[in-house]
From TrEMBL, chains A, B:
InterPro entries: ArsR-like_HTH, HTH_ArsR_DNA-bd_dom, HTH_MetalResp_TranReg, WH-like_DNA-bd_sf, WH_DNA-bd_sf. This is DNA-binding transcriptional ArsR family regulator. PANTHER family: TRANSCRIPTIONAL REGULATOR, ARSR FAMILY, TRANSCRIPTIONAL REGULATORY PROTEIN. Coiled coil: none annotated. It comes from Paenibacillus qinlingensis. GO terms for molecular function: DNA binding. SUPFAM superfamilies: Winged helix' DNA-binding domain (SSF46785).
């Protein structure tokens, strides 16, 4: 898990909104995550985050379940995810979370 | 200044090393920043960071002086730059700063 890859994975408004949603609601199906992009774009975003180590993807039957790798991120980069989520929720996140 | 653009500007090892150097040493000339990339690549990295609002560029004669926009970043995203620099210096940064 590299810092530059983690920051890249979080450097997109759609990916930030997915991370914020997973942080608040815990594990979700890929289809259950509400973002305004087509399915293939959502899959691409999920792959970017999975490859950077930001999300974990668990396959259950025909569903893909996503979760935020909070513990791993905190262990590797203490305070980083918290600072980014706080920055997100204090600004761009308002339209999503309020 | 958008969070996703700031994170993108910091999502590259060379840009992270420039930010870390500016954080430690204060304003530097563009040429005085020691990174192992050619001049045109360095200029590209500087432009990316300037456009995201991460660095300020001041022209003095034939020189370009770079500084980190710490105060603006802290005002807009409290704690974010600190968390990223701490993550950088705790991991990838070791080979640069130690």
């Amino acid at each position: 898990m590299h810092l530059s890859s983690v920051l890249y994975a979080l450097s997109d408004p759609v990916r930030l909104s997915i991370v914020s949603e997973l942080n608040k609601l815990g594990e979700r199906t890929c289809g259950g995550i509400d973002v305004s992009v087509v399915k293939s774009t959502k899959s691409h975003h999920v792959r970017t985050m999975r490859e950077a180590g930001v999300v974990h993807v668990r396959v259950q039957g025909t569903q893909r379940l996503l979760s935020l790798r909070k513990h791993d991120l905190e262990e590797r980069f203490p305070g980083l995810l918290h600072a980014i989520l706080q920055a997100y929720e204090g600004t761009e996140g308002q339209k999503v979370s309020e």
